[in-house]
Amino acid sequence: MGGARDAGWVAAGLVLGAGACYCVYRLTRGRRQGGGGHRLRPSRSAEDLTNGSHDDVLNAEQLRKLLYLLESTEDPVIIERALVTLGNSAAFSANQVIIRELGGIPIVGSKINNPNHSIKEKALNALNNLSVNVENQIKIKIYINQVCEDVFAGPLNSAVQLAGLRLLTNMTVTNDHQHMLNNYITDLFHVLLTGNGSTKVQVLKLLLNLSENPTMAEGLLGAQVDSSFLSLYDSHVAKEILLRVLTLFQNINNCLEKEGRLAVQPTFTKGSLFFLLYGEECAQKMRALLYHHDADVKEKVTIIPKS
After folding, report:
1. Each residue's pLDDT tens digit, 180-219
2. Burial call 7-25: b when 16+ CB within 10 Å, e when fewer
3. How many angstroms separate the CA atoms of 247 and 238, rounded?
4. Whole-angstrom Cα distance, residue 184 to residue 75?
5. What is the CA radius of gyration of the chain?
6. Do 114 and 79 contact (CB within 8 A), yes or no?
7. Is the predicted pLDDT of residue 20 greater than 80, yes or no?
8. At what angle do helices 280-289 and 295-303 cross, to 10 degrees?
9. What is the Cα–Cα distance from 249 to 230, expressed in whole angstroms?
10. pLDDT value at position 15?
11. What's the per-residue H, E or C state across 29-72?
């Protein structure tokens, strides 16, 4: 491309010069009428990518132009499409590194502040794919508190809530950032008990990550949890939920055994998860589940103490 001739060069020449950005721009605004300069035809790979076919990996130059577009435009439709394209690109490990090195994580992360729920969701999805890379997590962790606030303050079972939960789940696969959720454990159990099936499963995935870390056991067991939590151990509960709450109990029990805490009465208040899991009502439910019709459930129950 030539030098800047007027203020329209940035919006037209730069966007049209990048395959991915061109497609996003064209799909949302259509072809510009009039004006100087030549048009560049998008490459087939970029066109396939924005149309939902993700066989090809965007190169660094295309990603740079796409990030520039995302940072410079205020058009919500373009922002959303750019985030989708970036999120899809971030499914490739090579692009996870390139986007970080191009300074793309703060650009994407800034969009979770957007009041448009659809944009917020797409930004969270993009960060979720980027968070698969451990080095990216170091930059993404600064958004954990805000994501938690959005998850617990936003509409129950919403797309934003699920996207936020997925991101938090990825960020807690290792122990490095789990401590940042210490103040939100009670909130997690509240969403677990009030959410629908999909929300319950996603919260349980997150809680399972936390429950594998002995340093998180005290925070989990000390959380104030409504007694309706024990209804998740009823025999009629969906298997994908029941197996996960049993594994949660198993993981916490293993953590306490490693620390020798089961031999000593821990100091947890009434209404805490500890009193629910190690109370008589839960013990009765465990004994009843020994006769569950599903072999996987019965096998899981035999591992957990019934007293």
Report:
1. 999 999 999 999 999 999 999 999 999 999 999 999 999 9
2. eebebbbbbbebbbbbbbb
3. 14
4. 34
5. 24
6. yes
7. no
8. 140
9. 11
10. 35
11. HCCCCCCCCCCCCCCHHHHHHHCCCCCCCCCHHHHHHHHHHHHH
